[in-house]
């Protein structure tokens, strides 16, 4: 294992490069790394502060952490065999909590209410479908089962922690290793905490379920007090990948030992439909089981909840508000490609990461620019090196009219004034954003009430996620107007219901919020009118309230891009870099073969035409161009022939001598062409453009049928 | 069977189809013009998609000449190949200068990649051209500046296997033996990081080895382990939740194709043999090794002149009865039936070729149609498998 100085050895299968400096593992090295990296990285160098990215990188980390912590809390489980730090989504786990409770309860009661009159006791099986959408879910269930559950208040005497074994498809290629994994998974934890030395000659085989029975007997007898004996829970992860016949045998063996062994099997299905068990296993096996099915909440509802409680919640103020473009991409990705929480988190993290490329985002929290005081910040900004940054800041802060010569003079006259104006812009943005969220919340609430009152027409053709995205674009005018119209037509009683509901919505919000005052006043005014008009069939109250609502929506559901310096706190219409998650590697390869010149840096590319003559192309491209002109199958010899012709023409264009050489030279030249042909052919083979076929001697098949433009 | 559609309906149905504007007509005209679509300026490329092209090609037998490359062109030996490749009379288009320039243009992005790795993202690089140099640079930068332990895996090597990864893991402090050991090592010191740089994560060696893949997946799933890998195959895997970067370099795949045989049309011939050998019994593998060694010896005796087709290979081929005696002496097969059963699998996959079969098997000669270097490498690999270190 060696490391050559200039290049990493390609002849070794694996090369190890030790960590740069092993001595500094102390805390002093904590942040240096990132600063070294960040100092070199500066996406908008021309208008950035010196070392601006270092500050912004810290801000990015803080912002993302805040957002991430909102969505999840970290907890450490001893789970899944090894000590893995598992993240459990806070919001998501709140969503999952009822289901987890239900599963845990169903495990505890698995042997309590057995149907009388059955010929034999059934093996309880709990099928959890859709468990792959969030990693933390099963870990959550397992940890709840393992510990004592004092929180189950409704249970008078909480059952003791269950014993758990996890089985994975890779552990279970046959019934013997499956049973071994199952039995040793329990038995390796001795009942009284002491390690028992077993004599291999006199003890049962490790795959024998009798061993588990003996172990369980000891466990039950050693239990003190009137506590019920613990249960044995087996988790089958990635259940679809298990061998059917192995699982059938395992179910059969286990079912013949219940209820002496209180085994409970938890089956984790990744599909959303629990029918897998019923379609895959025969009735003879299913009749031994008592299957309970649960489905993990997933899909758009999950995402909706996460987004609504992170970015559209009045109780939480993220550093950076996600814009409609990123939100649309997230929705699309989640609904179409990978409906997993991890994927959604990745997209949000990337959005944050990209957002802080913008030099101005250094002002996301304060105007200190990474220094400790306002004076130092002013000094830093006055530095001539930061003049480009200052210029861009001024031109982004103020519109053309404000900067044009006028009688009032410039809006700010010095750096301190500029920084103060940023502080003002921030306060304004935050204020407007809170009002925006409140107004959006009110709109959703009004819609909900009207729907609950039985007016189906209030159903908008947008999903909640689309509503969020549309509201950020300021594009909910039509929906708002329609709701207002519906409100105006409400009868007295129904108006009352609406007002009461909105009042309770406000009451649920934290009390100190000033923003709610306006809504409270609007509600109070209408409520007063309503009281006066009690008993009347129709009053102007609904009408008036509708008018107020229309004004309220119009004033507050605004396009955030109209606010000054919105770029700092809002990702807005910036498109999400979808190439990074959903690339087109094939298109890239094909276009690199067809137009290699377009990949060269711009300075070398300006004078080259769209389509190069064939002799100007590299070998693989020549071969590929001929490939596209061929039929479904390509005769390698003919391909070689046309390649040599192209190379001949290349030679006559590029070779200085240009003329024909002697016979020996000609021989060498032929070998050279052949070597180049072989290399180009192997290149196309490596990148997967050739399919070999045994149908005709020395023929290959095309795999790409793109049309050269 | 009578048609459910009357002829009237039938014609109506088709006329409706014909009447759909533009599409139907454009398609039929492009069909009429066959391959001459390019010659017809009215059609334009817009009316003719790659799907159309595929079905057009698939709809007719492919007519090609009867020339056979391997008969008409003398194959190059690896030495000839290596010697004649750099013997260009003029600088080739898009050679060194351009590729260096392209690689240079990727260099400013390295800090960004490093930042992404430190932030816990896994990266995949795609695009035409060898990405080895740039990725190696990234690997060194990781070690030097991001203070990470780095393992560079040259997965493009045909012999790449799980064992190599495990052997390399042992170089880490604490000498971990498996993924759990690595997890322990990473958690022992705070902010410890391991970066795996995988050249060609889509290489055949990884594609066909579930064990190596499982090990990589187990490693990548650990906290503190990041993967930066390159992908070259156009129908490569599509890993979601990885960050993709276009890293077109146009550089020749020299290191990646170092194992390719210049006389073979396939870039990776060995793999077929490896597949077959992986599927047969231990005994059959032993037989193959025995035959291969005998053939190598015969080749050395014959002055290393390699036959190119079965007809010329009489000199180096092994007679069936000689092989039978050898097999019996080595306790591989004790009777004729057993030996034939062992050979059957190889014959079916053309890993062993029979020439000159006489009556009742007399004069039957067996030959492994692989070139010397290739056969030698294959045998070395097999022997390593048989007696692990």
From TrEMBL, chain A:
<feature type="domain" description="Origin recognition complex subunit 3 winged helix C-terminal">
    <location>
        <begin position="586"/>
        <end position="705"/>
    </location>
</feature>
<dbReference type="GO" id="GO:0005664">
    <property type="term" value="C:nuclear origin of replication recognition complex"/>
</dbReference>
<dbReference type="GO" id="GO:0005656">
    <property type="term" value="C:nuclear pre-replicative complex"/>
</dbReference>
<feature type="domain" description="Origin recognition complex subunit 3 N-terminal">
    <location>
        <begin position="78"/>
        <end position="362"/>
    </location>
</feature>
<dbReference type="Pfam" id="PF18137">
    <property type="entry name" value="WHD_ORC"/>
</dbReference>
<dbReference type="GO" id="GO:0031261">
    <property type="term" value="C:DNA replication preinitiation complex"/>
</dbReference>
<protein>
    <submittedName>
        <fullName>Origin recognition complex subunit 3 N-terminus-domain-containing protein</fullName>
    </submittedName>
</protein>
<dbReference type="InterPro" id="IPR040855">
    <property type="entry name" value="ORC_WH_C"/>
</dbReference>
<keyword id="KW-0235">DNA replication</keyword>
<keyword id="KW-0238">DNA-binding</keyword>
<dbReference type="GO" id="GO:0003688">
    <property type="term" value="F:DNA replication origin binding"/>
</dbReference>
<dbReference type="InterPro" id="IPR020795">
    <property type="entry name" value="ORC3"/>
</dbReference>
<keyword id="KW-0539">Nucleus</keyword>
<comment type="similarity">
    <text>Belongs to the ORC3 family.</text>
</comment>
<dbReference type="GO" id="GO:0006270">
    <property type="term" value="P:DNA replication initiation"/>
</dbReference>
<dbReference type="InterPro" id="IPR045667">
    <property type="entry name" value="ORC3_N"/>
</dbReference>
<dbReference type="Pfam" id="PF07034">
    <property type="entry name" value="ORC3_N"/>
</dbReference>
Automatic annotation (TrEMBL), chain B:
<dbReference type="InterPro" id="IPR056773">
    <property type="entry name" value="WHD_ORC2"/>
</dbReference>
<dbReference type="GO" id="GO:0006260">
    <property type="term" value="P:DNA replication"/>
</dbReference>
<comment type="function">
    <text>Component of the origin recognition complex (ORC) that binds origins of replication. DNA-binding is ATP-dependent. ORC is required to assemble the pre-replication complex necessary to initiate DNA replication.</text>
</comment>
<protein>
    <recommendedName>
        <fullName>Origin recognition complex subunit 2</fullName>
    </recommendedName>
</protein>
<dbReference type="InterPro" id="IPR056772">
    <property type="entry name" value="RecA-like_ORC2"/>
</dbReference>
<dbReference type="InterPro" id="IPR007220">
    <property type="entry name" value="ORC2"/>
</dbReference>
<dbReference type="GO" id="GO:0005664">
    <property type="term" value="C:nuclear origin of replication recognition complex"/>
</dbReference>
<dbReference type="Pfam" id="PF04084">
    <property type="entry name" value="RecA-like_ORC2"/>
</dbReference>
<comment type="subunit">
    <text>Component of the origin recognition complex (ORC).</text>
</comment>
<keyword id="KW-0235">DNA replication</keyword>
<feature type="domain" description="Origin recognition complex subunit 2 RecA-like">
    <location>
        <begin position="100"/>
        <end position="235"/>
    </location>
</feature>
<keyword id="KW-0539">Nucleus</keyword>
<feature type="domain" description="Origin recognition complex subunit 2 winged-helix">
    <location>
        <begin position="313"/>
        <end position="373"/>
    </location>
</feature>
<comment type="similarity">
    <text>Belongs to the ORC2 family.</text>
</comment>
<dbReference type="GO" id="GO:0003688">
    <property type="term" value="F:DNA replication origin binding"/>
</dbReference>
<feature type="region of interest" description="Disordered">
    <location>
        <begin position="1"/>
        <end position="44"/>
    </location>
</feature>
<dbReference type="Pfam" id="PF24882">
    <property type="entry name" value="WHD_ORC2"/>
</dbReference>
């Amino acid at each position: 294992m060696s490391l050559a100085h200039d290049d990493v050895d390609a002849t070794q299968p694996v090369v190890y490069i030790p960590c740069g400096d092993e001595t500094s593992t102390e805390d002093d090295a904590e942040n240096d790394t990132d600063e070294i990296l960040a100092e070199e990285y500066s996406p908008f160098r021309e208008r950035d502060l010196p070392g601006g990215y270092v500050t912004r990188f810290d801000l990015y980390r803080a912002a993302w952490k805040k957002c991430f912590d909102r969505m999840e809390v970290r907890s450490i489980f001893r789970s899944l065999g090894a000590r893995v730090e598992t993240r459990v989504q806070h919001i998501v786990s709140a969503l999952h909590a009822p289901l987890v409770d239900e599963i845990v309860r169903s495990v505890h009661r698995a042997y309590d209410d057995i149907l009388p009159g059955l010929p034999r006791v059934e093996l309880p099986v709990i099928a959890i479908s859709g468990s792959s959408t969030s990693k933390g879910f099963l870990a959550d269930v397992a940890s709840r089962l393992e510990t004592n559950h004092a929180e189950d208040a409704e249970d008078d005497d909480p059952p003791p922690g269950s014993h758990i074994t996890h089985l994975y498809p890779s552990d279970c290629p046959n019934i013997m290793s499956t049973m071994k994994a199952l039995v040793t998974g329990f038995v390796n934890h001795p009942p009284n905490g002491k390690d028992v030395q077993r004599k291999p000659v006199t003890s049962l085989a490790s795959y024998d379920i009798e061993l588990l029975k003996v172990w369980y007997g000891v466990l039950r007898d050693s239990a003190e007090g009137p506590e019920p004996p613990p249960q044995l829970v087996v988790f089958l992860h990635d259940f679809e990948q298990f061998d059917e016949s192995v699982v059938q045998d395992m179910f059969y063996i286990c079912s013949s030992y219940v209820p002496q062994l209180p085994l409970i099997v938890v089956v984790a299905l990744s599909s959303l439909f629990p029918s897998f068990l019923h379609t895959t296993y025969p009735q003879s096996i299913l009749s031994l089981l008592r299957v309970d099915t649960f489905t993990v909440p997933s899909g758009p509802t999950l995402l909706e909840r996460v987004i609504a409680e992170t970015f559209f919640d009045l109780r939480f103020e993220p550093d950076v508000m996600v814009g409609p473009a990123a939100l649309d991409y997230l929705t699309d990705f989640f609904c179409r490609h990978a409906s997993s929480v991890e994927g959604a988190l990745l997209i949000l993290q990337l959005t944050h990461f990209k957002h802080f490329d913008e030099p101005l985002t250094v002002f996301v929290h304060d105007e200190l620019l990474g220094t400790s005081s306002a004076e130092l910040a002013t000094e830093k900004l006055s530095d001539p090196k930061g003049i480009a940054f200052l210029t861009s800041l001024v031109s982004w802060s103020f519109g053309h009219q404000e900067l044009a010569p006028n009688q009032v003079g410039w809006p700010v006259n010095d750096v301190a004034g500029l920084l103060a104006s940023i502080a003002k812009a921030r306060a304004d943005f935050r204020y407007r954003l809170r009002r925006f969220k409140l107004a959006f919340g009110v709109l959703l609430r009004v819609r909900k009430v009207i729907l609950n009152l039985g007016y189906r027409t209030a159903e908008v053709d947008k999903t909640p996620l689309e509503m969020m995205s549309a509201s950020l674009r300021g594009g909910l005018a039509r929906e708002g107007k329609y709701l207002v119209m519906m409100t105006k037509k409400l009868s007295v009683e129904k108006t009352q219901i609406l007002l009461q509901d909105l009042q309770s919505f406000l009451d649920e919000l934290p009390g100190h919020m000033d923003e709610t005052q306006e809504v409270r006043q609007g509600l109070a005014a209408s409520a007063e009118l309503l009281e006066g008009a009690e008993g009347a069939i129709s009053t102007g109250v609904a009408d008036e309230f509708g008018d107020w609502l229309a004004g309220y929506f119009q004033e507050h559901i605004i396009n955030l891009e109209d606010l000054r310096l919105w770029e700092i706190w809002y990702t807005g219409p910036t498109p999400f870099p979808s190439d990074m998650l959903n690339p087109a590697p094939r298109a890239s390869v094909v276009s690199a073969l067809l137009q290699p010149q377009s990949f060269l840096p711009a300075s070398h590319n300006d004078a080259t035409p769209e389509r190069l003559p064939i002799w100007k192309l590299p070998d693989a491209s020549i071969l590929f161009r001929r490939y596209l002109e061929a039929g479904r199958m390509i005769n390698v010899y003919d391909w070689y022939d046309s390649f040599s012709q192209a190379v001949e023409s290349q030679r006559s264009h590029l070779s200085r001598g240009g003329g024909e050489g002697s016979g020996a030279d000609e021989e060498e030249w032929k070998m050279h062409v052949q070597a180049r042909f072989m290399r180009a052919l192997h290149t196309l083979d490596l990148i997967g453009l050739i399919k070999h076929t045994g149908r005709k001697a020395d023929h290959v098949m095309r795999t790409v049928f793109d049309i050269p433009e | 069977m009578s048609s459910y559609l009357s002829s009237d309906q039938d014609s109506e149905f088709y006329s409706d189809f014909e009447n759909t504007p533009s599409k139907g007509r454009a398609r039929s005209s492009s069909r009429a013009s066959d391959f001459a679509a390019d010659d017809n300026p009215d059609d334009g490329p817009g009316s003719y998609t790659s799907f159309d092209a595929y079905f057009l090609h698939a709809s007719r037998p492919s007519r090609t000449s009867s020339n056979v490359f391997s008969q008409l062109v003398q194959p190059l030996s690896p030495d000839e190949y290596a010697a004649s490749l750099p013997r260009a009379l003029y600088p080739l288009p898009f050679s060194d200068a351009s590729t260096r320039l392209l690689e240079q243009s990727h260099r400013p992005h390295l800090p960004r990649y490093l930042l992404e790795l430190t932030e816990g993202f896994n990266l995949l690089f795609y695009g035409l051209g060898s990405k080895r140099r740039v990725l190696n640079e990234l690997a060194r930068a990781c070690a030097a500046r991001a203070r990470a332990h780095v393992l560079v895996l040259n997965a493009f090597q045909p012999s790449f296997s799980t064992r190599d990864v495990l052997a390399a893991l042992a170089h880490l402090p604490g000498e971990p033996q498996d993924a759990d050991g690595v997890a322990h090592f990473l958690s022992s010191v705070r902010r410890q990081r391991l970066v795996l740089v995988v050249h060609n994560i889509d290489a055949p060696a990884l594609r066909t080895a579930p064990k190596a893949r499982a090990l990589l997946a187990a490693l990548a799933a650990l906290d503190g382990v990041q993967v930066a890998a390159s992908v070259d195959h156009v129908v490569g895997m599509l890993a979601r939740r990885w960050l993709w970067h276009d890293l077109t370099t146009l550089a020749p795949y020299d290191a990646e194709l170092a194992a390719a045989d210049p006389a073979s049309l396939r870039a990776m011939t060995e793999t077929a043999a490896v597949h077959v050998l992986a599927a047969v019994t231990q005994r059959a593998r032993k037989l193959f090794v025995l035959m291969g060694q005998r053939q190598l010896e015969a080749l050395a005796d014959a002055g290393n002149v390699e036959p190119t087709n079965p007809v010329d290979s009489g000199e180096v081929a092994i007679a069936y009865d000689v092989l039978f005696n050898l097999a019996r002496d080595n306790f591989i097969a004790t009777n004729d039936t057993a030996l034939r059963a062992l050979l059957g699998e190889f014959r079916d996959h053309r890993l062993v070729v029979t020439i000159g079969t006489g009556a009742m098997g007399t004069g039957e000669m067996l030959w492994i149609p692989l070139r010397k270097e290739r056969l030698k490498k294959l045998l070395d690999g097999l022997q390593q498998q048989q007696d692990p270190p």
